[in-house]
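Quick board copy: two proteins, each given as sequence then tokens.
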Amino acid sequence: MEASLLVVGVIGNIISVLVFASPIKTFWRIARSRSTEDFESAPYVVTLLSSSLWVYYGITKPGGLLVATVSGVGVVMEAVYVTLFLLFATPQLRAKTAVLVAALDVGFLGAVVLVTSLAVHGSLRVMVIGVICACLNVFVYGSPLAAMTANGIGFILGSIQSI
């Protein structure tokens, strides 16, 4: 049974790396044109936060090596994406991205690590971090909706995507 779980975990990690790699074509285009065009940085900033928290969860949870390693790959890839945004965005989008990075990827991540390290102990710590990560996943997969306009069709399509 344990070998089967390992195989499923490795397959899941491979799929997750492919998901992290899916925007490579977009970022190749951004680097070549030296412009972020109309792309939004929020999905990448939020995914960087999520990946960082999943690394923390993986190193906190006994037996969480697969979670920590695949999330570590996600941290590296998302950090590259966010860096490209900071390099090639318009000044206004660069400022917005920098604020998001400071608030979420530094501030929120630091607060979660600090609070759970100091105030939550034992198996409850792993559960609290896991719940935060699970909730954040909803935002990660919903963050592309930030680029949609608020209209009836957008609401319906966004709801379908979220479900």
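And the next:
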Amino acid sequence: MRLRSIPLGFVTILGLLVVVIGLTASARSFAALQPGIPAWLKGHVGDGEDQISQVVLERARALYQRKVSEGAVRNPCYFAMDATRPSDLGNGVLGHRYYIICEANQSFRAVAAGHGAGRNLKGVVNFANGRECSKNFGNAMDSELTAGGAYMTSDTKTSFKGYYRVGAKQNAVFMRTFVQFDGEGETANARKRVIGGHPAQVLKGLCMRKDPASPYANHDGFVPAGTLVTYAGGRSNGCTSWTPQDAQLIIPLMKDKPTTLYIYPESRDIAAVAKAAAGGHALAGTGLYWNAACLKQIGTPKFWPKETLEPVIAKYKADHPAPPPQPLPICKE
């Protein structure tokens, strides 16, 4: 087969386009790798509502820059979370402590996010968290605690969870998307812990309803059904949860475009703040950071390392075996 020749002018134009595209990508990377916080972003730095505290931004930005320089990230956006800030402010108002930062288009947004509930192993140890402020942090399996540190967003999976009622004899399918996080250092077991991000929604009161026409029906023609509950002001099992509306914005920014998420505080921060708090010392002027309102409420924060907590949880599970799983009941309606 004879190949047709390509006009020299077309080759020149094509080459120029490649150069321009390459320069544009390089410019964006260069902007992302600027050493100092840009002026537009400095306006969002602070400890007030809808602001990001300086140490949180500095660490989130440093993580993002490192991953960009390594070639692991090409996404123009990165994320941060300040888990020392309050989650539920009361009266239906949520605290904004999860940050979406896109330096390429000078975009910054603060939204709500849940924290790990922890657990109360009655008679053994209590590392549970309240709705408003998180006192306990950790990286142990089955602890349901938030672990601060460096993460990369990874694969995204959308799963069928069941049906829920939206009107008289009208039902809707509930599909929930989960974004897996991969960590490093103290968060390296994030995938093993199934730590990631998802909308703060779940189906409660599940039962099995006859619906053989459903593509999700089991071999007997039944599908799970329940009540859709949004718990954006509540707690999670250690994952990062967003309001359904915010999840619609955040998840597409992550899907198929890996980027970084930095969650504050790390264990070193918790240890330093706990030491200062136990000694009755104020954090002002020490270089340490914790949200003042939450620190006043929780007193002394604590990090529970997996090496210490996992054996305790394992023994508790062995001493308190879960009852055998029961099939879901048949729906009455």
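Board note added afterward: The first strand starts at residue 77 and ends at 82.
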